[in-house]
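Work through what follows:
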Amino acid sequence: MKKLLAFTFTLLIATASFAQKKELKAAEKAIKNSNFAEAKNLLGKVESLISSADDKTKGKYQFLLGKALYANGSGSEADMDKAIEALGKSGNVYKAEATEMKAAMINSFLTKANTALEQKNYVKSSAGFEKAYRLSPRDTTYLFYAASIAVNAQEYDSALKYYNELKDMGYSGSETQYVAIDKATGEEEVFANEQVRDISVKTGTHIKPSEKRTEARSAEIIKNIALIYVSKGDNEKAIAAIEDARKVSPNDLNLLMSEANVQYKMGNVDKYKALISEAIKMDPENPELLYNLGVTSAESDPEAAKGFYKKSIELDPTYTNAYINLAALILAEETFIVEEMNGLGSSAADDRKYDELKAKRTQVYQDAIPYLVKALEIKPSNVDAAKTLMNIYSALGETSKYKEYKAKVESLENGGN
């Protein structure tokens, strides 16, 4: 009886093995005929049997599964991910075939990713670079591109995942560049690799070959992790990430300002003010910094914000946004004046107060006008500045000026200058 059982068991194994080979052969034929749906169906039938197969059969199954899922580049996003995983499991027996297929897939992903980037389809582009990296993990730059482009797509969760992955692997991003001087232009040119540069030098089109290292990207990665946490409103993680980032880049003003903003959001006003003071000491003549200080101070300290905007304008008289924001801060005072006017009664005292507030409101308009006019002078296409001036002159009853800016607004909205 034992012998019968053993024979039966052997027969079952042999039958299963035959079924595997039959289905794999049929799937291989379907793939050659580009019938990928049929191939996936056939491979699905033997999936449960593969765990007991020999290594060669397992490798063939995974390799064919990868090809069927990839479907010559027409597979779904989910199938592409599964195809990459399957090829990674194909083992040494099919290493050469898998390597060849991976190379073709990488080229396809990179081509599509670059095309999508040119078309500003950032989601698709980021996904393409990420898949290229999964197929070729040594090319960590692909993952960096995937993360950076994901930020442009506002896919912050994906960007954060990729950046953290890069950080954990200790990615620096510093690369060797092969350069030479173009004899025709006298300018330095960067080549794809050393061989191409050397050929150019030998043919006489370039001179003075050299090598140089690009700046490390590690600080940028940590900084972006921090800024993503800020954008997600995850203040505690943002502060921790910013502190890490500032250890790497202690003189990075954007990081310092980001920490100041988060501290302000968390209600840590004293810490916020200390960071602002630190920023001013670091670069007191930086118009962009002073402008940013104006932006971050506008809500908590409008008068200080006005001072920052004015200082920014002194340093850069063409800083349009500083003029606009300064005008906006001045005009914000109108809200409180109007509220007070609306709360007055009909007594003689109230009438006098009303006239005082009306004059104050007129002065607010007059104070804001020069900044808006200057902003429009620097950037004539600024329709918001033109609209605000139109409304101000309407409120002031200056008909000719109102008509002038109304015509300006209509021209801008119709595509004019």
Notes: DSSP finds 19 helices and three strands in the chain. Confidence is low (pLDDT under 50) at residues 1-16. The beta strands are 176-182, 188-191, 206-213.
